[in-house]
UniProtKB/TrEMBL annotation:
Subunit structure: Homodimer.
Keywords noted in UniProt: ATP-binding, Coenzyme A biosynthesis, Cytoplasm, Kinase, Metal-binding, Nucleotide-binding, Potassium, Transferase
Name of encoding gene: coaX
Primary localisation category: cytoplasm
Protein's UniProt name: Type III pantothenate kinase
Record organism: Azotobacter bryophylli
Amino acid sequence: MIVELDCGNSFIKWRVVDGAKSVICSMGIAASNEELISALDEIGRTISLRRGRLVSVRSDEETAQLRELLAQNLGVEVQCAQPARALAGIRNGYDDFSALGLDRWLAMVGAYSLARKACLVLDLGTAVTSDFVSADGVHQGGYICPGLPLLRSQLREHTRRIRYNDAMVKEVIKDMGPGRATAEAVERGCLLMLRGFMDAQLALATEYLGDDFDVFVTGGDAALVKEMLSGARFVPDLIFIGLAIACPIP
C-alpha cells in the first residue's frame, strides 16, 4: 500500500492507495503530524504501509521532520515531489521554476494529464490560486489571493466586533441576500469576493487560452463555486494525480 500526503499550510490531506489497482483504501485530513501518525498507525495494524510520496508547501525543516516521523514510527519511506522545469508534457512558466508552489505545479500536471488541452486550474483552499496552461502544455502564469479561511480570519483579527461561531458558516450562506447579522454579512461578502475572482479568471482564460479550454477545480471550498462553474471538472484529488506522476512508485 502507498501512503500519499498533501502537506498544506493548515492541514495534511492523506490517503492510502493500493498501488497495483489504483484503488483508494482510506483517506482523511490531519491537523498535525501527531494526528496523522495516529491515523496511519491504526490503518497499519491491518494493512502493510511501507512506501509513500508527499508534496509539501511547508519549510524544508518541517517536511524533513514529518518524513523522519513516518520512517521512525511507521517504517514508511517517503519520496518528496521536487520542483521541475518540465514534467509529463507541461512546462513550468516561472522564470525561477523552483519558486512555483509545488501544490500548484502538481495540480497543473494532474489537470494536463487528464485534459491534454488548454486548461484553467483553480485551487480553493487557505489561499485561492489560478493557473493557465496552453494547449501545448506551457504554463502561462497565474494568480494568488486569500481564500475564505484567510479572509474570515483577517476580519476577525482586525475588527473587534466581528465575532461568531464557525458552526454558523454553512447555514448563513444558504441565502445570499444582504446580511442582517454580522455572520451573514461577512460570510456572504467573502463568498461574493470569491465568486468575483472566479468570474475574472474565466474571462482571463478566454483571453489567454482562447475558447477551447477545460476548467479544473479542486480544494476544500470548491463546492462553494460549483453552481457558477457548471461546465468545470471538479477533481478533489487533482494534486494527488500530479503527485503520482512526479513520484512514481513501482
